[in-house]
């Protein structure tokens, strides 16, 4: 690869949504310019100049392409002022549309001179006439399409947050071994000092972690805390019954009985009801 090629900036990539808006804008401008065409034809006939239909078709297509070229700017305005509503944001959008319309009219004069008239530059008088005749019209058309974009974005449903990708296994280092514990086999978890004891049937795996740190990695739909030192797998809960000291006891399907703190009763009850409703 040559040095000049390596220095080239990466190509601008439009999202599928942006490309759809640009295509829609092309159709929008084609329709708008075509609706104005009878007036242009009538003016040409009144001046004794029959219309050149090839030239008129080329002018309409060029106007559609030029109008569609402004769409990325309108999309930027929409995203920049998505929470619009203040007088300042409306004023800034209006000023941007006015400036964009001015630029489009001037560029259209340049294109008409180059493509249709074979001249390098249009006359200043010609640019002045086009601005006087079309600046307000182009501003209205740009503002209308900007309103369409904003209305569509307001009606679009908000993107749903992706569900966290909860781990299904935990890696535990045991001396020179690395054990992969399947969380689906874990019945309950007990805090033992600086370790978390994962009870999986007859096996107990010690993981060096804090209780809060480990729970943050567990799927809350599968595990629930019942005590400051105990977390249980919801689908392992077989029974909840009152205890003698005001707390309650949770019996697991394995036969293990664990203390249920008063502050955790409502959460456990809600989780069990949710599981029963889903099953």
Keywords:
single chain; 279 residues; alpha+beta; 2 domains; five-stranded antiparallel sheet; 8 helices; 19% strand; disordered N terminus
Secondary structure layout:
Blueprint: H1 3-6, H2 16-46, H3 53-69, H4 71-80, H5 87-116, H6 124-155, E1 169-174, E2 177-182, E3 188-192, E4 195-200, E5 203-208, H7 211-215, E6 223-227, E7 230-233, E8 237-242, E9 248-252, E10 257-260, H8 265-278
Antiparallel strand pairs: 1-2, 3-4, 3-7, 4-5, 6-7, 8-9, 9-10
Helix pairs in contact: 2-3, 3-5, 4-6, 5-6
How would you sum up this structure in a few lines?
This protein has 279 residues and is an alpha+beta fold.
Structure report:
This protein is α+β, with helices and mostly antiparallel strands. The chain folds into 2 domains: 14-155, no CATH class; 169-278, OB fold (Dihydrolipoamide Acetyltransferase, E2P) (Beta Barrel), CATH 2.40.50. The protein has 8 helices and 10 strands. Strands 5-4-3-7-6 form a 5-stranded antiparallel sheet. A 3-stranded antiparallel sheet has the order 8-9-10, with no helix packed on it. It has a two-stranded antiparallel sheet with strand order 1-2. The longest helix is centred in the middle third of the chain and has 32 residues, at 124-155.
């Amino acid at each position: 690869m040559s040095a000049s090629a390596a220095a080239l900036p990466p190509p601008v990539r439009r999202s599928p949504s942006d490309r759809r808006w640009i295509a829609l804008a092309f159709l929008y401008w084609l329709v708008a310019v075509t609706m104005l065409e009878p007036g242009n034809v009538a003016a040409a006939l009144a001046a004794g100049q029959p219309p050149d239909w090839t030239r008129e078709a080329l002018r309409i297509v060029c106007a559609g392409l030029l109008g569609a070229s402004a769409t990325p700017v309108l999309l930027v305005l929409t995203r920049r002022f998505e929470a619009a509503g203040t007088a300042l944001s409306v004023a800034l959008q209006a000023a941007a549309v006015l400036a964009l319309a001015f630029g489009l009219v001037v560029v259209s004069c340049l294109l008409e001179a180059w493509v249709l008239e074979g001249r390098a530059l249009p006359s200043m008088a010609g640019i002045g006439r086009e601005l006087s005749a079309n600046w307000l019209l182009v501003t209205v058309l740009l503002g209308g399409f900007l309103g369409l974009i904003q209305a569509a974005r307001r009606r679009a449903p908000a993107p749903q947050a992706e569900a966290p990708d909860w781990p299904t296994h935990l890696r535990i280092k045991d001396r020179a071994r690395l054990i992969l514990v399947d969380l689906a086999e874990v019945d309950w978890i007990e805090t033992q000092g600086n370790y978390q004891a994962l009870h999986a049937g007859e096996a107990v795996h010690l993981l060096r972690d804090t209780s809060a740190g480990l729970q943050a990695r567990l799927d809350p739909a599968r595990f629930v805390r019942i005590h400051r030192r105990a977390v249980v797998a919801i689908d392992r809960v077989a029974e909840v019954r009152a205890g003698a000291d005001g707390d309650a006891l949770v019996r697991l399907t394995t036969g293990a009985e664990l203390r249920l703190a008063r502050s955790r009763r409502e959460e456990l009850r809600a989780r069990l009801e949710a599981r029963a409703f889903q099953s």
